Amino acid sequence: MSNDETVATAAKPAGHEPAPATRPSSHVDHLADLYRQMFVIRRVEEEAARAYAQGKIGGFLHLYIGQEAVAVGALSALKPDDYVVTTYRDHGVAIAKGMTARAVMAELYGKDTGCSRGLGGSMHMFDKKTGMLGGHGIVGSHIPLAAGAAFASKYRADGRVTLCFFGEGAVSIGGFHEGVSLAALWKLPIVFICENNEYSMGTPLSRTMSVEDVSMKALGYGIDRDRFFAEDVLTVEQRIGEAVQRARELSLPTLVEVRTYRFRGHSMSDPAKYRTAQELEERKKKDPVLRARAFLVEQGFAASRLEELEKAVEAEVADAVKFAEDSPEPDASILEPTTYDGPFAA
Ligand SMILES: Cc1ncc(C[n+]2csc(CCOP(=O)(O)OP(=O)(O)O)c2C)c(N)n1
């Protein structure tokens, strides 16, 4: 299957044009910004893995390393006040949605300065300000929630679009079908993005689904679909952008299957023995972060600017780690108002 694989949809039956060979400088600057975001995510997670190994981060830690082009490309197609809902593999989406490396790292460390005041940890990145509606730990459970957010937007006519990310493991779960069914029925402004990274924990897709083309599920609900590889962040931005436009302008949902690959285990405790070293090495050759970097160089982005950009990212990430380490633990008194007397208390 090539990187340009295109699935014809009712809204766009024609094939997609390949990206132009050279781009004007504003496009190069745009690519540089996408690369910067991916590099921040990569470096934040590498530092998180190190801190986890040192026992500074507890609980689960599901890394997004290898999948960065999906979050960064997709969220680049959104407006700032649009909504996003995702799974426990949420650090990349959180940063791409505009959350700071500090807020994410401090949450990972369980500190009071984290986005959820250290109470949520890795799987519960949440930030009302940026429209980041989580971070959800139960596979597929957030898909109806995302449909609900999109319903609210339609009801209020606020023009917002919701992006909902999930893994291919969620597609056989009831919540997926409930969410997609309602979105189709009520014509909700939402894009369902299945990040097909080939494994649900250690189980390959071929052992969980009779039809391996996840996007085909859209046919059963009469909605548009798309399917492509996510090695090039600009491709992701363009293709998700088409679905976002359909949601915003026509209030129609789309199911998009984005083919990707995670370079680390499912979580930090997974040695990933279900795949060969050779398979991993082959996939690393298509690393979306390195690919964007190489493309920038090819497009004439000055080496000095690249060095400056990468230094700034390193400084931002080092600052986030220091911030998390220096921040206080949440005081135990936070448990009472968040459990009994908070805004949701009876
Ligand atoms: C309802 C439910 N069942 C099982 C689990 C345990 N679990 C956590 S992640 C996961 C695999 C999900 O794989 P996938 O949806 O493909 O996402 P990926 O981890 O590959 O990003 C499972 C079974 C869970 N969290 N929720």
Search tags:
11 helices; Rossmann fold; 7 strands; alpha/beta; 346 residues; two-stranded antiparallel ribbon; binds thiamine diphosphate
At the first level of CATH, the class is: Alpha Beta
Backbone shape: globular
Architecture, according to CATH? 3-Layer(aba) Sandwich
Helix-and-strand structural type: alpha/beta
Q: Give me the Rg, rounded.
A: 20 Å
Strand-residue fraction? 5-15%
**CATH homology superfamily name:** Thiamin diphosphate (ThDP)-binding fold, Pyr/PP domains
Ligand catalogue: thiamine diphosphate
Largest sheet: 5 strands, parallel
Query: What is the residue-mean pLDDT, rounded to a whole number?
Result: 92
CATH topology value:
Rossmann fold
* H/E element sequence: HHEHHHEHEEEEHEHHHH
Distance between the termini: 54 Å
Summarize the amount of helix as a percent range.
40-55%
Tally of contiguous helical segments: 11
Low-confidence blocks of residues: 1-20
Widest sheet: strand ordering: 1-2-3-7-6
The overall strand count is 7
Domains, number: 1
Describe the SSE topology.
Layout: H1 25-53, H2 68-76, E1 83-85, H3 91-96, H4 101-108, H5 142-156, E2 162-167, H6 174-185, E3 190-196, E4 199-200, E5 203-204, E6 224-229, H7 233-250, E7 254-259, H8 277-284, H9 288-298, H10 303-326, H11 335-339
Bound molecules: thiamine diphosphate (TPP).
